Amino acid sequence: MNPGPLGPEPSALPNCATPRPCALKSTSIVYCITPMVSNTIRTLCQQAWKAIAICGIISLGQKEGDVMAEEKQLTLFERGDVEGSAPEQMSLWQAEAGSKKRSTEAAMPSWSAVAQMRAPREPTRPVEPKGLWETDIVRDYLPDLDAIAREVRDCRLCKLGRTRTNAVPGEGHPHARIMFVGEGPGADEDAQGRPFVGAAGRLLDKIIAAMDLNRKEVFIGNVVKCRPPGNRVPESDEVSACVPYLARQIELIRPDILVILGATALKALIDPKASITRMRGTWLTRSGIMVMPTFHPAALLRDPGKKVLVWEDMNKVTAWMKDINGQREE
To answer: Which residue among 182, 217, 250, 315 is buried most deeply as judged by most CB within 10 Å?
Structure first.
């Protein structure tokens, strides 16, 4: 046997359990320590593993199979030169990773989003509610308020067009910051073709004047543009035929505030189940427009005690307008 420059190969050494001198040649004495070191490492690893388990670092819920896999893996580290050990070791690593993943998922609460291991999503933005005046019927071919007025006067889309005297498209500033919308024309409005010119209209003029405004600075209109016979409540098909004209007016005027006058207008534009008594004086937002519901002026003529409530509602509108004006000046 030819020893190398560093002595004989380890495989050529005798298999000794304890270090002892071996006379391979008369001139060289080596110590056979390889088996002893291997046994020592194995013993130390096993003792360390037991110590870690006793200290509680290893999860108490770890399955017995996982511990056995760890011990077998240590054995593979010691005999890495054995044929076929590398695939077996890789299999152990995969098994260990799977068991740790299962134990981690089990430890997480079911409501935890982390358990799903998904990438974070962008927060959902709340969808702004739309006014009921926005329907599938669009009158965007009408370029301005005058074009709307001409078409309304010629309209026969519902039965009101056959019983009216004059259609009442609405009137006011083409870019008014406040828009008043009522139910429909009455007898005086039907006769003149103008909105709110009867007793309720004169009371509305006083309300607008108390807000330091006049009719020319606001826009006044109705849900339906023709008078229902006997001043009855407009029917659903009549509202559906007329609302697209109102929607186009709102789109062109782009008011800051929409003041809804009365229960019929509130149900047609906000919610069919809405109550004007409960919702009046409450700010709403629809289609990017601030909405203030209040009582119809005709209701104030029947019950003067409601005038105080309407005045409170209009004070809110006035205060909001002043705040916006101040912000724009800054």
So the answer is: 182
d(CA 271, CA 81): 80
Say which residues have a Cβ less than 8 Å from residue 123's Cβ, sequence separation at least 6.
none
Q: Which of 230, 286, 235 is nearest to 259 (CA)?
A: 286
- CA dist 159 and 237 (Å) reads 9
pLDDT (tens digit, 9 = 90+) per residue, 48-63?
A: 666 655 555 444 444 4
Distances (CA, A) of 197 to 170, 178, 191, 193: 11, 18, 10, 9
Cα–Cα nearest to 297, from 231, 201, 220: 201
Residue 178 phi, psi dihedral angles, 5° rounding: -125, 135
Question: What is the DSSP annotation of 242-298?
Answer: HHHHHHHHHHHH--SEEEEESHHHHHHHT-TT--HHHHTT--EEETTEEEEEE--HH
How many whole angstroms separate alpha carbon 221 and alpha carbon 261? 10
Query: What are the beta bridge partners of residue 291?
Result: 258, 284
The pTM of this model reads 0.63
Beta carbons of 300 and 206 less than 8 angstroms apart: no
CA distance 110 to 118: 14
Q: How far is CA 230 from CA 155, 164, 220, in A?
A: 20, 11, 22
Burial class (CB in 10 A: 0-12, 13-18, 19+), 205: middle
- The residues, ordered by sequence, that sit 6+ positions from 157 with a Cβ below 8 Å of its Cβ are 241, 242
pLDDT digits (tens, 9 = 90+) for 138-169: 999 999 999 999 999 999 999 999 999 999 99
**Cα(303)–Cα(266) distance, integer angstroms:** 19
Q: Are strands 28-31 and 21-25 parallel, antiparallel or unpaired?
A: antiparallel
pLDDT score for 97: 52
What are the φ/ψ torsions at residue 198 (nearest 5 degrees)? -85, -155
Question: pLDDT (tens digit, 9 = 90+) per residue, 101-141?
Answer: 555 555 544 444 544 555 455 556 567 788 889 988 899 99
Q: What is the mean pLDDT of the chain?
A: 78
